[in-house]
Amino acid sequence: MKKKFSTELAYVLGIVFVAIGVVLMEKAEWGVSMVVAPAYLLYRALSPTWSFVSFGMAEYCLQAVLLLVMILILRRFRLSYLFSFITAVVYGLVLDGFMRLGALLPVDFLWQRAIYYVVGLLFSAAGVSAMFHTYISPEVYELFVKEVSGHFHVDIHRFKTLYDCVSCLVGVVMSFLVFGLWHFVGVKWGTIVCALINGTVIGRFSAFYEKHWTFYDRFPWRKYFEASESHSGS
User: Fold this and answer.
1) d(CA 209, CA 6)
2) If I label 28, which of 79, 93, 111, 114 is the partner at 20 to 30 A Cα–Cα?
3) pLDDT of residue 195
4) What is the pLDDT of residues 95-110, one digit of tens each?
5) Contact predicate 77/83, CB 8 Å
6) Which residues face 4 on adjacent strands?
7) Which residues lie across from 78 on neighbouring strands?
8) Rounded CA separation 80/12 (Å)
9) Where are the domains of the chain?
10) Is the model more confident about 2 or about 18?
């Protein structure tokens, strides 16, 4: 018999899990997730000059750009898209908090890096899948995948894999442009592995969630988000 799991809790855990996963993969130094690689490279490039620039800040700034790109592709605007940006800001703040905690983790041995990478990848995938099971607006990354795949009637998990591979390529190009040819920062072999398997892992987590839990709304907020989704403008 399935147990009940609130969609609001799925939203909170999605943000926390993704932030933990990103921090652990960054700590492993084998390459961050391809989705966050552009933001990480922006952070690494700007923070030495402007110390106020954090990883989280780079995240929600780039997500704002991605949001504009999505609106141009879909040729529509919904109020719920702004809530996705709010989620991105909240995620950025949580990410910065975990980055401070992650600085305390030891990285003296190879096995420690291996654990950080594997656990980080699993946390990230579990978090993204959780965000797919809530009505509350997800980060722009997940919103882009959900909206664009739906618009073009493409399987969401396959589209996620394609999106991850494109993000990986963008990260490689940015690494070359910012840090020089063959000087890989943030984008390494672990990024490529993540790009190839992340969509599948997310799909496995989704199947696991749906097998063991029935998602329900604990609070009567869904109607407000659905109303914002139906509101569009030019």
Assistant:
1) 12
2) 93
3) 79
4) 999 999 999 999 989 9
5) no
6) 214
7) 232
8) 17
9) 3-225
10) 18
